[in-house]
Design brief:
six-stranded mixed β-sheet; five-stranded mixed β-sheet; homodimer; Maf protein; Alpha-Beta Plaits; alpha/beta
Chain lengths: ~450, ~450
């Protein structure tokens, strides 16, 4: 849970701009602001986005400044008639707009470096609420504004991401820290998990770890196909309890734990690449229902040529025979979606590619092609090496794309478990395995 | 400017979730909602994001429902303790939470299809505010909620993008339209375009179509790899001018125009599928630098087995020889990224798959492996049929993933142009072709 306890500062965000309301762009500025605050252990309490309408802006600034300790306003500092932030701020503060000498100097320097004369729209950027402070902009023409209204410290920042970035890291974050009561930065630990959902894990923790430390917060982030877990300490005491907590969480997760996140979370394919590189081994793919997705995920990662030399997309039965040597009698007797076929595909690919490991898939992605015996969502996966080839049949109903993505992710997980020598049975096999072999 | 005039309905958005506040993810759900509203000519007036705190949720729903005609709430419908939307809604409406029979049935069906028993956290998803309506969720466990509070129609939607997408397009957008005051909807016409950017097209229009009708608005939506164009009439007069305007726009676009959008925009692969089906023809793929992405895009679409039987991911040189019969002398003399190799790959795949058409790719996706002669971003593409095989070398610098996606899209476009019998040279060849054949 986010710490909204009363001693945490109440930080709010106001984003302005018509383009944010029309869905043409995804707002990444607020993610940038949130990330910089997170380094200080601070969370945004509320975020409001409005279009460039004077009445909306004025009423929001008025409203938000009454509950926030800090309000960061992003956008609306530019030279055009749409840019209303300074004017709205003046209206809320009930002060006049006047030319700010430092802002004017900044504009003059800025235009001088670029060798052009200031025009009237440019000069508008020096017209600021009386009594405000300015925040330097190292890159652009618009200076930032700092002003206290209703006991709330307000920072107005430019919408251009690079300018915002510099302004935040060079000035605003320090200024917020200076104005905070004494706060400490506690430890955070992050993990990637596969094959266990948020609710299943929460249930296991409730059953097996009833004395979960109160001041360690467990957060989840669905980042298909991997789930991210985050442990955040809320006190010095919690930091002491963290190693023991991690140990118990790891024992609950078992081999559903894929990796600890160091800097950036890695893709599933990148994890497989690392394990194969460590084993100095290569892998090949024989795909029917996933249609090339497994190969594509592998080769999206740079460095994949070290561990991947070839893949086979054998969609039609006759190709399974001609390319991978699947006996036509097997196809006729057992069908394309069968243990016999997927194992023959896997063996054929291993031989053709001279690879160490293989993933083979044969299933019914839908929406058509299902039968009562083999409904849409049925898949046979084979994985392993020449001397250790395994197979499983799962039922994964859902949309075609969901099915293909899930089969791809499970295939990666099965190879991962083989490479780390896991003897545990993953939850998705327990829950999704089709007990009797469908024919 | 956004139409905030008084007769436009006041639509607001409330996004919930701690993860939205911490900067771990960039919120794309609100962009999706805004885009779907935009198709109806509707704009979002205000957007608020709060973390999963009961007091914040309750006060925001209370506050927003007083000014909004429609309020879309996204997130907080899941099974965990963090998911508080239903409870907050009940508190604002001053009704009890009770088990909703239809929601329960949905959960039972959902778990039955997946072959597992409902646990307690799952069952929580059937506990909804008394008197609410539910909105079907075709993909996931959480049903949506519809409820009117303070004369505001509130829709609660799940945070999982795919589930949100289906719920919006199948139910909520229609429902909003039904509840709108009588507004006249002027004609709208939409197109998919490839290989010409927004600014290039705007420039061509400015040059060649100076008398563009004032009351027909041209909108753009980047929807990689296809660009969407939308012509919106703003008056009855504009509706009369539309056919002539479309005709002139089409002549400016030439064969960069891929299709008119009927209901939903189709993927590039789906367009290729239709063209191949019309021609009763099949296609195969021989991929090096795209690593299976072309095959994967083709097979993501249902119905692909009619036009696609096999694909080859030949990453290593020795596999290009063993699988596709590329002469080793060609590889040694000209290298893997060469016209000779890509043509030999294409011929080999056509023969192995007995397909009518082929796409073959060989290039340097990066970030490593570039040379002065063949920098990162160099790609040879071959496409066509046995008697009409063509090839081109382009330079497409950018990230590895951008490169793979762009090569995939261009390959589709080249096959499309061949299938429609186009004699025009696309802009991307004019601009990106490497003049001297690199070796």
């Amino acid at each position: 849970m986010v710490d909204n306890s009363s001693n945490a500062p109440n930080i709010q965000l106001l984003l302005t701009g018509n383009e944010l309301m029309t869905g043409d762009i995804v707002d990444s500025n607020s993610a940038m602001i949130a990330q910089q605050l997170l380094y200080l252990g601070l969370h945004i309490r509320k975020k409001v986005t409005v279009s460039d309408e004077m009445t909306d802006l004025v009423s929001e600034i008025q409203h938000l400044s009454q509950s926030a300790d800090f309000l960061i306003i992003n956008g609306g500092l530019g030279p055009t008639v749409d840019d209303l932030t300074a004017q709205a701020l003046a209206e809320v503060a009930k002060v006049k707009i006047e030319q700010h000498p430092q802002a004017l100097e900044h504009l003059q320097q800025w235009s001088k470096r670029r060798n052009f004369a200031l025009n009237k729209p440019n000069l508008k950027q020096a017209d600021l609420p009386a009594g405000c402070d300015i925040i330097d902009n190292d890159l652009g023409s618009a200076v930032g504004i700092k002003m206290t209204i209703n006991d709330c410290i307000i920072y107005c920042t430019p919408g251009v991401p690079s300018e915002l970035d510099v302004m935040l890291s060079k000035y605003i974050m320090q200024d917020i820290q200076l104005n905070l009561p004494n706060v400490h930065h506690y430890k955070v630990s992050r993990y990637q998990v596969f094959g266990i959902g948020e609710s299943s894990l929460q249930k296991l923790i409730n059953e097996q770890y009833t004395d979960w430390p109160k001041e360690i917060e467990l957060g989840f982030r669905a980042s298909m196909p991997l789930l991210e877990l985050k442990l955040t300490c809320k006190s010095f005491q919690a930091e002491k309890e963290l190693p023991a907590c991690i140990k118990r969480l790891q024992s609950i997760l078992g081999d559903h734990l894929v990796a600890q996140i160091d800097k950036k979370p890695l893709s599933f394919a990148k994890h497989i690449q690392s394990l194969l590189k460590d084993a100095k081994a290569t892998i090949t793919t024989a795909e029917s229902c996933t249609g090339g997705m497994i190969a594509s995920e592998i080769t999206k990662e740079s460095g994949s040529s070290d561990i991947f030399e070839s893949g086979y997309v054998t969609y039609a039965n006759r190709i399974k025979s001609s390319e991978l040597g699947v006996n036509e009698a097997i196809l006729q007797e057992h069908g394309a979606v069968s243990q016999q076929t997927v194992l023959a595909m896997a063996k054929g690919a291993l031989a053709a590619a001279s690879s160490d490991y293989v993933i083979a898939t044969a299933g019914i992605a839908g929406p058509n092609g299902g039968t009562e015996e083999k409904p849409v969502g049925t898949v046979w996966i084979a994985w392993g090496s020449e001397n250790n080839l395994q197979s499983v049949c799962l039922l994964l109903p859902g949309s075609r794309l969901f099915f293909q993505r899930y089969v791809t992710a499970i295939s990666f997980d099965l190879i991962r478990r083989l490479l780390i020598g896991s003897a545990q049975v993953p939850l998705y096999i327990k829950e999704r395995q089709v007990s009797s072999n469908p024919r």
